[in-house]
Design brief:
Layout (H helix, E strand, L loop, with lengths): L5 E7 L13 E6 L5 H9 L17 E6 L3 E5 L8 H14 L3 E8 L7 H13 L3 E5 L7 H18 L8 E2 L8 H11 L3
Parallel strand pairs: 2-4, 2-5, 5-6, 6-7
Antiparallel strand pairs: 1-3, 3-4
The structure holds guanosine-5'-triphosphate and magnesium ion (MG).
């Protein structure tokens, strides 16, 4: 299914510009700047260069919509930490709270840094709006298996304590060596009930 052709649909900076393809299930990728959101979308659709990535934080500045065939919509977001919280909040929270076909939000987290204040804040907001989300640890090629397992266990323990609408399975991916992408694809397909 993820081998259907993937395409760019549209960029948006406000709700008026969002594509009205609300019959297609949608998932969105959020997280701190430079965490690997854009690279992950390229990895998932197996098309390097579909989404522009950069080693400089703050590269993605708009909400960018992509589609996989006519079956699934993927949204790449600007990182938080680049825009001021209010700016980030204004544009993206509107979208997250009102988008009818949004099936799950993927929060990308660096396993070597763990959950940051900004991640906790956004999770609280998602909890208070009843929005389903799941944590994905990125760039796991940089960690030993032991360190990754320890980081994952620590994050899962924090989520069990605090998070309400969090899907209770933390995933790990590497867009660089394509680790964990199949498991994430399967989770997305299930979230979208495709
Ligand atoms: P913003 O758009 O600025 O919010 O960043 P982003 O979250 O979209 O990150 P992006 O995908 O542009 O990647 C940031 C940097 O991390 C780039 O230099 C990528 O090459 C690198 N990167 C992304 N994924 C991986 C990975 O799985 N492993 C490694 N080692 N590096 C990665
Ligand atoms: Mg980006």
């Amino acid at each position: 299914f993820f081998f259907l052709p993937a395409d760019f649909v549209k960029s948006a900076t406000n709700m008026d510009m969002i594509p009205d393809n609300t019959l297609i299930p949608e998932v969105a990728f959020i997280g701190r700047s430079n965490i690997g959101k854009s690279s992950l979308i390229n990895g998932l659709v197996n098309r390097n260069g579909l989404v522009k990535t950069s080693s400089k934080p703050g590269h993605t500045r708009m909400m960018n919509f992509f589609k996989v065939g006519d079956k699934l919509s993927l949204v790449d977001m600007p990182g938080y930490g680049w825009k001021s919280r209010d700016e980030w909040g204004g544009m993206i929270l509107d979208y997250l709270k009102t988008r009818k076909n949004l099936r799950r939000i993927y929060i990308l987290v660096d396993p070597s840094h763990g959950l940051k204040e900004s991640d906790q804040q956004i999770m609280k907001l998602l909890d208070s709006s009843g929005l389903s989300y799941q944590v994905v640890l990125t760039k796991i090629d940089r960690l030993s298996k032991t360190k990754f397992s320890a980081a994952k266990a620590e994050i899962e323990a924090e989520l069990v304590k605090d998070a309400i609408c969090c899907f209770p399975m933390v995933l790990g991916v590497s867009s660089k060596n394509k680790d964990g992408l199949d498991v994430l694809r399967a989770a997305i397909v299930k979230a979208g009930q495709l």
